[in-house]
Amino acid sequence: MKIYELFEHEGREVFGLFMALRAVTQKPLQYFTENRKELEKFLDQFDPIHPMPGRAYLSNDYRALVNLGTHAYDLDDDITIKNSVLSVFFVRFLKFAGYFGSSTSSAKPTKFGEKVIPDDTEIFMLRLVHQLVSVQAYNSHSVHEMSENLEWVKIGTSINPSLALINHSCDSNAIRCNLNRNSMLVAGRHIMQGDEITDSYTLHFR
């Protein structure tokens, strides 16, 4: 059974939540523990910090990703609870899969449902995963491709920390494009100096 098959009563929107799990598994645990102090600066923020202190803003910087947390009080109670439960599930899954190795209380994988007391590292990773689950709610973009019938077909969801900073407009002046694993924004019409660059968070109609 694949992990997403456990959510049989959920719709397609649940797949976007898995971006938090994927974001964590792109790096070893050592990366997060070594950068813990830097990442924790953004975990208790209810709005992004701009400009970001220190290094330049880069999309591949996990500080930029974690810094996208916003609208914390705008989520409905049921969604807040769902995100919290899912975060615990993801951390338990990582533990069961051996992601934590022998550096924590996870030296031996445990069975789902077994009572576990998380250690300090696991609690930190739980906070991080919960932040990423919350981040995707307002910063994810659909990825589409053109079908043989010249129709846009959704094939996935992504988070780009740079493009997520651009405001939405139903009549955007720029178009977001996906090329393999890269995302880019190109002008959809002439943009005058001083005009705000906008993007459509849904399908583009140009």
Q: What does this molecule look like?
A:
This protein has 206 residues and is of the alpha+beta class. The protein is built from six helices and four strands. It has a two-stranded antiparallel sheet with strand order 1-2. The protein has a two-stranded antiparallel ribbon with strand order 3-4. α1 crosses α6, α3 crosses α6 and α5 crosses α6 (120-139). The longest helix is centred in the middle third of the chain and has 20 residues, at 77-96. The N and C termini lie far apart (41 Å).
Judged by helices, strands and strand pairing, the structural class is alpha+beta
Major sheet summary line: 2 strands, antiparallel
Extract low-pLDDT stretches. none
Helix content: 25-40%
Helix and strand run: HHHHHHEEEE
Note the beta-strand portion: 5-15%
Number of helical segments? 6
> Span from first to last CA?
41 Å
Main features:
6 helices; 13% strand; two-stranded antiparallel ribbon; two-stranded antiparallel sheet; alpha+beta; single chain; 206 residues; 4 strands
Question: How would you summarize what this structure contains?
Answer:
The protein is of the alpha+beta class and 206 residues long.
